[in-house]
């Protein structure tokens, strides 16, 4: 189980990654989302956003790793994945 500090730090990185993505800074967005997952591997929101970003960037292998993790741990979030990872298209 992750401690509160890790969860908060991971959430902060997720929010920074989301903000960077909204400003078109995909490099920083990917770095922050990856950091969020490294700090708290259970940060499903970060995995959804990172998986979608990786897919947009053409990194199907990286996107599929996040999709597989989500399918195993949070299948209800698979509908939030874009592209080939929408429910029923895997």
Helix content: 55-70%
For the termini, the CA-CA separation is: 30 Å
| Gyration radius over CA | 12 Å
Oligomer: single chain
Secondary structure category: mainly alpha
Count of individual helical segments: 4
pLDDT under 50 segments (min length 5)?
84-90
List keywords for this structure.
mainly alpha
Describe this structure in words.
The chain has helices at 4-22, 26-39, 44-56, 60-73. The chain has 90 residues and is mainly alpha-helical. Helix 1 runs antiparallel to helix 2 (26-39). The N and C termini lie far apart (30 Å). Residues 84-90 have low confidence and may be disordered.
Question: Strands, helices and their partners?
Answer:
Layout: H1 4-22, H2 26-39, H3 44-56, H4 60-73
Helix pairs in contact: 1-2, 2-3, 3-4
Question: Short description, anyone?
Answer:
This protein has 90 residues and is an all-alpha fold.
